[in-house]
Amino acid sequence: MHLTAVLERAARRAPAKAALVTDDRTVTYAELLDLARRAATVFRDAGVEPGDRVAVMTFNTPGFVVAAFGAWFAGGVLVPVNHKLTVPEARYAIEHSGAVVGVVSGELAGTATAAGPDTAWFTTETTVAGLPDFDASTRAAAPIDAPVSEDEDAPAQFLYTSGTTSSPKGCVHTHRTISAVGPLITSTLGFTRDERFLLAMPIWHAAPLNDWLLTMVFLGATTVLQREYDPVGFLRSVERHKVTAFFGAPIAYLAPVQLARAGRLALSDFDLSSVDKWLYGGAPLGEQVARSLVEAYGTDRFFQVYGMSEMGPVGTALYPQEQLTKAGSIGRGGMPGVDLRVVAADGKDAGPGGTGEIWLRADTRMTGYHGDPAATDEAFAGPWFRTGDVARIDEDGFLFIVDRLKDVIIVGGENVHSQEVEEALRGHARITDVAVVGRPHAEWGETVVAVCVTADGADISLEEVRDFLADKIARYKLPREAVTVASLPRNPSGKLTKHVIRDGLVRTGA
């Protein structure tokens, strides 16, 4: 289905129903459809032709949603841009995608215009001198009668990956692949048209955009937009708007708990009883953390979801009854409509007790990486997408991610999973952050290097590291080098960029 048809269908079924809700505004489905058609005229007048890319760099605001659907009505391709990026980082996505027109929240206009000086920028939310006002232009424009194109196989999105192992890559999704996400997510989590989903995580991320916003439009449900996450605002939004579902990284749940422990708020002061689904992703929860969240929020209705931008994102789910008994797992097998394999080094499927790379297959898979056929070929194995995530399968068939494939360190023919060593080192009292990487070694192939940030800033010795780990991991996994740094490089999503760390070790020899 073309994504414009998804919105048209929702507006026909329930024109007066709230599609988007903020603290000071409600946009019905009829209004959203009208604004999207008007925005399409704005984009067409700005020179957008079918297939042209439209960059959108905003907070969680109605302007993002109007711009996205406006781009699709105009035949354009949406390029969501992380609003936290610096100028060089944003420049990469804007230039690589070839965005001809962009919409940016007014306070971010300086970054956007510096990053994309050849892109025709409009502002939303607030006005900026010298740039046209997208919101006013949209209200003044005549609505387009029909989508410029209804080709379901035309590109709809370029989603840029986190870039943890290399430069970010642009996942090309079509209208067909993205419109297939909603039914799969709905069947997995049991969403209904009565949902009031709180979107507080950044809307430009693949999951908030496709799994949650567009699934709510698919159902004709309501999305509550929190402009930007903050712990107290999150709790207030749940209470005020009678939210039924929320998705966040684990820290989004932990932050209010930490404030409560510090005596700065009481969770019991907020009515959270309307929520039926507390969803999290980005990292699994250990048993101790899972138990603390169940106790703090007074419910066991937690769901872990795992997926990748390349897959829409869809993948696996861990359900409430499994949160404690299988803490740390991403689930057992794929979501309904998602096929999953764990492929061992010999190319055969791994069984219980085995370890291998997760491969996924679904109708939501991207068509490839923009302008990078070599990376596309490497990521695909026939109809399968090779995730690069290495998982262990337990005796009951549940998957536990142990590493990224490119982060596995091979020492004398033995595989060392960097995350296992990192987890052990995080128990050291002096270590506040750590990355474990491999350095090329003439005899052993690679050697294990622990790159540490210490609480006191003083160097930590190799002997101290090895002594601490001696009874925790096998001897061949022990680091042969320890490096102390002031901080570790991370991408805007907070994930370690280990390729940068490895390059730095090689470049400096430190």
UniProtKB/TrEMBL annotation:
It comes from the Bacteria. The keyword Ligase applies. InterPro entries: AMP-bd_C (IPR025110), AMP-bd_C_sf (IPR045851), AMP-binding_CS (IPR020845), AMP-dep_synth/lig_dom (IPR000873), ANL_N_sf (IPR042099), ATP-dep_AMP-bd_enzyme (IPR050237). Keywords: Ligase. SUPFAM superfamilies: Acetyl-CoA synthetase-like. Residues 420-495 form the AMP-binding enzyme C-terminal domain. One of its GO terms (molecular function) is acid-thiol ligase activity. Residues 7-370 form the AMP-dependent synthetase/ligase domain. Belongs to the ATP-dependent AMP-binding enzyme family. This is Feruloyl-CoA synthase. It comes from Actinocorallia herbida.
